[in-house]
Design brief:
Catalytic activity: beta-D-fructose 1,6-bisphosphate + H2O = beta-D-fructose 6-phosphate + phosphate
Protein name: fructose-bisphosphatase
InterPro entries: FBPase_C_dom, FBPase_class-1, FBPase_N, FBPtase
Strand content: 15-25%
Number of helices: 10
Number of strands: 20
Bound molecules: 1,6-di-O-phosphono-beta-D-fructofuranose
Number of domains: 2
CATH class of the largest domain: Alpha Beta
CATH superfamily of the largest domain: Fructose-1,6-Bisphosphatase, subunit A, domain 1
Family: Belongs to the FBPase class 1 family.
CATH topology of the largest domain: Fructose-1,6-Bisphosphatase, Chain A, domain 1
Structural class: alpha+beta
Order of helices and strands: HEEEEEEHHHHEEEEHEEEEEEHEHEHEEH
Low-confidence stretches: 1-37, 43-58, 114-123
CATH architecture of the largest domain: 2-Layer Sandwich
EC number: 3.1.3.11
Mean pLDDT: 86
Radius of gyration: 21 Å
Shape: globular
Distance between the termini: 29 Å
């Protein structure tokens, strides 16, 4: 199959549906609490906090009893505003196309057709993108363009941000396909996105300049953020500034169904997630921390377990649900595309995001592709880890795997 064929006919299953705002005459459900010991708790199923008033509002469900992502964000749900509803409709559609792409029997032959594996990044701070990275990037870009709601898109796959639409309200930062080095082995991958408002005070600047400055907003200004995990289930996890919620793709209908309301990361977990083949490149503090918790000698007197998928979205998703710390202590992950959106989600779930010293969301990005150490997880685990002082890996030889 030709690349162009895949691009033009990516997902026979999910045809784009005309967009309608959610119906307003759906049934109302009352809240219940779902929690399991030692795991994230999901509170108030069917009831979510209203972003504007801070009060609880009732999410509306369709006739099958399901509340979909679009019901959730719309007027019958938390009502994030019409512009953001339209944008989310296009983002979720793009992610359904990527979900189909990563599961496609044809994706392993894409490298030969695009020649993308040979792309050189011209001395920039980025690894050479893979064919699926580039295709995912195209899919996201076309959806953002079609939404009419995006002024700027900054992608991990592009050297510079793209100015799309002068009057559109939002700026989107994205890592279209994180963990793509895993793809040949069908290991989970993910899409990460963050949404900011366009800075109207920069409108007078030349396009290149305002595109860059809009993309370098601090994470504390995020309006919304999310990831989509492509795994045994396709899960879209998002926050619109009022809790972190997850939706699972129902392949029979093409809807993301509201499955994990108000995720609360346990304050303490028993799992650390890191590539510990780097142990001898770690600083003393990080080695001591890992040695301590794996022996059950830390503040939580149980032996920790190690889990590392090497796919940031998957490692974070598990951490959100089970607790613990997901980390990459070397300067590898990107502040703009990865650390900020994911820290926003973790904080909204009651956890913490740090570079080992300071809060991620407080860092002012100075470079688009800026990299940093990243520690995300349970608040007590992150605090304990930071108390070891020296946890950022400075030796970073650039591991070829
Ligand atoms: O090689 P390391 O240090 O284990 O890094 C692995 C991390 O890199 C990633 O693959 C991201 O790297 P890319 O953004 O370059 O794909 C993450 O998914 C994963 O957590």
């Amino acid at each position: 199959m030709q690349l162009s064929t895949i691009l033009l006919h990516p997902t026979p299953i999910f045809q784009p549906k005309p967009f309608h705002f959610p119906p307003t005459n759906s049934r109302h459900f009352s809240g219940t609490n779902i929690s399991r010991p030692g795991m994230a708790s999901f509170s108030g199923f069917g009831l979510v906090g209203s972003q504007k008033s801070g009060s609880l509002s009732v999410v509306e469900y369709d006739s099958s009893g399901n509340c979909t992502l679009m019901d959730f964000v719309g007027k019958g749900g938390v009502n994030v505003g019409d512009d953001l509803v339209v944008l989310m409709h296009h983002i979720q559609y793009a992610c359904k196309r990527i979900a189909a792409l990563v599961a496609s029997p044809f994706n392993s032959s894409l490298g030969n057709q695009t020649g993308a594996a040979a792309i050189v990044t011209g001395g920039s701070d980025r690894d050479a993108p893979k064919p699926l990275d580039l295709l995912s990037n195209e899919i996201i870009l076309s959806s953002l363009r079609n939404s009419g709601k995006v002024a700027v898109m900054a992608s991990e796959e592009d050297d510079s941000p793209l100015w799309i639409n002068d009057d559109a309200p939002f700026v989107v930062v994205t890592d279209p396909l994180d963990g793509s080095r895993n793809i040949d082995a069908s290991i989970p991958t993910g899409t990460i996105f963050g949404i900011y408002r366009r800075l109207v005070e920069l409108d007078h600047l030349p396009e290149e300049e305002k595109a860059l400055l809009n993309s370098l907003q601090s994470g504390s200004r995020l309006v919304a953020a999310g990831y989509v995990l492509y795994s045994s289930a396709t899960i879209l996890c998002a926050s619109f500034g009022s809790g972190t919620h997850a939706f699972t793709l129902d392949h029979s209908t093409g809807d993301f169904v509201f499955t994990h309301p108000n995720i609360k990361i346990p304050p303490r977990g028993q799992i650390y997630s890191v590539n510990d083949a780097r142990y001898f490149d770690w600083p003393e503090g990080l080695r001591r921390y890992i040695d301590t918790v794996r022996q059950g000698k830390g503040k939580y007197p149980k032996k920790y377990s190690a889990r590392y998928i090497c796919s940031l979205v998957a490692d974070l998703h598990r951490t959100l649900l089970y607790g613990g710390v997901a980390m990459n202590p070397r300067d590898h992950l990107r502040l703009v595309y990865e650390a900020n959106p994911l820290s926003f989600l973790v904080e909204q779930a009651g956890g913490k995001g740090s570079d080992g010293k300071i809060r991620i969301l407080s860092i002012q990005p100075v470079k688009l592709h800026q990299r940093l150490p990243l520690f995300l997880g349970s608040s007590e685990d992150i605090e304990e880890l930071k108390s070891y002082g020296d946890v950022q890996q400075k030796v970073n030889p650039g591991y070829e795997v």
